[in-house]
């Protein structure tokens, strides 16, 4: 019998996680089955419990359940604790539920290994202060950037993140317009504006020719943010498909202790958008 894994969310039909994990399993000769589970909005904990009863070994958690998964976890990794959100659950007969968050590790690996941009010494503008932004702040600061600026529509949320993480590195926060007149080496869109086909209210002049413009969202066409970055002169554009695959690889490692190769599946997903 293969070991059971799944991704759980609502909606879930769009998820690429089953394709990614079954490819990892094929490549690393692991005997697993990985499905997608639609949980009712009010039934996350019951759905997780039923999966566990069936002998399930682990879950990836996606929108809108990452906070609930955090609350449900009995043990948390440091990075899940900092993120206050969980995207990976591990079940083990001898240990209580472990909650982890692999989003930040996925982003870092995509930027440093796939995009070949070292983060140390760089200035970074992180746009957004929701779950995705929170999850990547500590991993970004651990790579020792020169500065991390957090811009959010609701400024108080960015200020709270600045206060929470300021002991880990040089952080400033504000509204988008507060960064007018500055330019950055890496600009990351962790808002959900691209999901609504909108551009965050960015001032002009933030991009240099060498700036990496990174949108955590991925889509068939360039997002409004990436189009804007290109118009502003940035040459290096990336969307979140690499982060998606890399966070999955990190979850696979947490569950199976083996790190799969990611380049081929990233290329395959890029070519089949
Ligand atoms: N590639 C991956 O593996 C991966 C992983 C995780 C997340 N993501 C992506 O990351 C994005 C954010 O997800 P999340 O979970 O952080 O969402 P979230 O918790 O709902 O947070 C949404 C954030 O976007 C901001 N926002 C929403 N609409 C905006 C607009 N029109 N203009 C400016 N700011 C706007 C919100 O600002 P306010 O605080 O002012 O409301 C908030 O900061 C999504 O696109 C998601 O698909 C990708």
UniProtKB/TrEMBL annotation:
Biological pathway: Metabolic intermediate biosynthesis; chorismate biosynthesis; chorismate from D-erythrose 4-phosphate and phosphoenolpyruvate: step 4/7
EC annotation from Swiss-Prot or TrEMBL: 1.1.1.25
Keywords (A to Z) from UniProt: Amino-acid biosynthesis, Aromatic amino acid biosynthesis, NADP, Oxidoreductase
InterPro entries on file: Aminoacid_DH-like_N_sf, NAD(P)-bd_dom_sf, SDH_C, Shikimate_DH, Shikimate_DH-bd_N, Shikimate_DH_fam, Shikm_DH/Glu-tRNA_Rdtase
Reaction equations catalysed: shikimate + NADP(+) = 3-dehydroshikimate + NADPH + H(+)
Quinate/shikimate 5-dehydrogenase/glutamyl-tRNA reductase domain: residues covered: 119-194
SUPFAM superfamilies named among the record's database cross-references: Aminoacid dehydrogenase-like, N-terminal domain (SSF53223), NAD(P)-binding Rossmann-fold domains (SSF51735)
Segments forming domain SDH C-terminal: 240-266
Top-tier EC class: oxidoreductase
Swiss-Prot/TrEMBL GO biological process terms: amino acid biosynthetic process; aromatic amino acid family biosynthetic process; chorismate biosynthetic process; shikimate metabolic process
Residues at the active site: 66
Cellular component GO terms held in the UniProt record: cytosol
Positions of shikimate binding: 15-17, 62, 87, 103, 218, 247
NCBIfam families xrefs: aroE, PRK00258.1-2
Quaternary structure and interacting proteins, as annotated: Homodimer.
UniProt function note: Involved in the biosynthesis of the chorismate, which leads to the biosynthesis of aromatic amino acids. Catalyzes the reversible NADPH linked reduction of 3-dehydroshikimate (DHSA) to yield shikimate (SA).
UniProt-recorded name of the protein: Shikimate dehydrogenase (NADP(+))
Gene name, Swiss-Prot/TrEMBL: aroE
């Amino acid at each position: 019998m293969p070991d059971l894994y799944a991704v759980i969310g609502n909606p879930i039909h769009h998820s690429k996680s089953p394709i990614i994990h079954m490819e990892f399993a094929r490549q690393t000769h692991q005997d697993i089955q990985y499905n997608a589970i639609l949980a009712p909005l009010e039934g996350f904990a019951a759905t997780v419990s039923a999966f566990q009863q069936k002998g399930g070994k682990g879950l990836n958690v996606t929108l809108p359940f990452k906070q609930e998964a955090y609350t449900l976890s009995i043990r948390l990794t440091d990075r899940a604790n900092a993120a206050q959100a969980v995207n990976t659950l591990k079940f083990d007969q001898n240990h209580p539920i472990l909650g982890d968050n692999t989003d930040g590790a996925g982003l870092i690996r995509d930027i440093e290994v796939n995009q070949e941009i070292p983060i140390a010494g760089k200035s970074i503008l992180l746009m957004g202060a929701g779950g995705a932004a929170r999850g990547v702040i500590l991993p970004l600061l651990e790579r020792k950037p020169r500065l991390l600026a957090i811009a959010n529509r609701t400024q108080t949320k960015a200020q709270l993140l600045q206060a929470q993480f300021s002991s880990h590195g040089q952080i400033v926060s504000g509204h988008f317009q507060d960064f007018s007149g500055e330019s950055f080496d890496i600009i990351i869109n962790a808002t959900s504006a691209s999901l609504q086909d909108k551009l965050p209210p960015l001032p002009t002049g933030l991009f240099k020719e060498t700036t990496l413009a990174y949108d955590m969202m991925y889509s068939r066409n360039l997002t409004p943010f990436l189009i804007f970055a290109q118009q502003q002169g940035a040459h290096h554009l990336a969307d979140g498909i690499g982060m998606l695959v890399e966070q999955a690889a990190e979850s696979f490692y947490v569950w199976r202790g083996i790190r799969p190769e990611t380049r081929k599946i990233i290329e395959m997903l890029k070519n089949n958008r």
